[in-house]
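ok so heres the complex, two chains, lmk if somethin looks off
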Amino acid sequence: MKKALLLILSVCILFVTCSVGTSGFIAEAENDKSPEEQLMEEVDKTISDLELGEFEDYINNLEIFYNRGGIKAFIRDLSEGKIEMSPQNILRLLFDTLTSGITKIIPSLIGIILIAVLFSLVFGLTQNFIKKQTVEIVYFVCYTAIITTVVAIVIGTVKEIKNTITALSTIINGIYPPLITLVTALGGGTSQGLFSPGLAVVGAVTSNVVTKVVLPLFIASIVFCIVGNLSNNVKLDKLQSATRYIAGGIMTITFGGLIAYLSISGLIGGMSDTASVKATKYLVSSYVPLIGGYLSQGFDLVRVGMVIVKNALGVTGIIIVFIVILAPAIKLLALTIGLKLTAGLIEPITDKRMSGFINGVAESTRQLLGAVLGVGFVFIITISILLFTLNTI
Amino acid sequence: MSWLLSLVGIVLISVLVDILLPSGQTNKFIKGIFSILVVFVLITPLIKLKNGNFDIGNLFSNEEFAVDSAFINKANERELEYIENNIVEILAKKDIKVEKVVLITKSGNINSIDNVQVKAAKIEQSSSIKSIVSEILSIDEKYIIVYE
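and the predicted structre for the whole thing:
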């Protein structure tokens, strides 16, 4: 939970601190148009020339972009500072999604509580005159009913997570090429050489690790939880805990390693390319300072325009990733909270295996929440690294 | 999936046996056997993993992201166009009229200028034009071609 909160806080800080602007310099123009008008013309040309391919069709179906005339129009508005993102709107969106998630699972959780109460009543009324085996059969029946309810919720959740990870991979594979193209066009040859193979690995590894390793381990831990609480003779609590620990360790190593690799690539590429871009600019403007500054206007206009578009595209990518992971992450959070509360409510009144099972499932879904947030965090960090590459020209 | 189903099956049978059999030494003995069977089923995938061909390379992709060369060429062309127009304006400020300036580059960007072709109104101003353009672009005058 602490790790999830930390991740969410980091994303919020990124939103607050990242800037669409640039620290490039434009010399004063001597023609009819103001520098700002010339710059916006240049930004428009850059956006029009940018090839987004099938990614553009995919993203334009999202409501936020459909209502604004498509992703290119959104990037244009973002470049001109027309998009407002207030903290109140973001928090309201988070709260609404959380309450909607909790509302959807409440009927199932109430059903679980009622089954537990029913078992408790039956056990309490009949324990003195029925055999232990009969009590076990009654427990078995109630337990099966609870398993059916919980597993139905979990299966729906797993399907949603798989679709989310697939959607994120598609989005990332669509947004990295134009960002890499803009970095290359700005003179980032070294960055492009370092990032291109690395980013392809990021997209493939994160989605493969989650869908082929973490999700199967999650399903295995749920099965261990079901089986371990079926009978007092077979206990699988430690095995379930070990499964969760292995999944957590794999995610930490994978995501941490990828972020470290891309951060170092960004630092090396950024230092080398910034120096070469500055050297080129110096060559062009090494004439008499006044005229040199005038001459570098053409050089700056195109490049500053590309930096603005690169930053706007990067911010758009971060917004898209945030929107895509928000709903499933909040639903998982709501499910975890709901299951934990249910386990706590039924613990005093029913067999400890029932509350143990529900608590075990809650622990597993908490880990799945960490996986989803981790994937989103990795993608946001990689987009941010590209966003901040060659920003000062 | 088959492993999970085997595990669930063994445990279910163990529970049924526990319910059906009367309590006593036989019951404890059979519970012990089923516990060993459960442990055996649990470690089966580890044995398969050791003997099987698990390749971590399957998690990686061999693809790289392709850069949009057409976009980069267009951006370079626009940069060169701006610089060419600005050189014309700078020369005009110094009362040197030129019709057009064309920068010929090796790889399409400002970093690799091959030569500069200037179409001047008066060929007599050729040396002034070469001198000014040479200073602006920091290139040798021999790479500047002035024609009328």
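quick notes: Chain B touches chain A through 47 residues (CB under 8 Å). thats all i got rn
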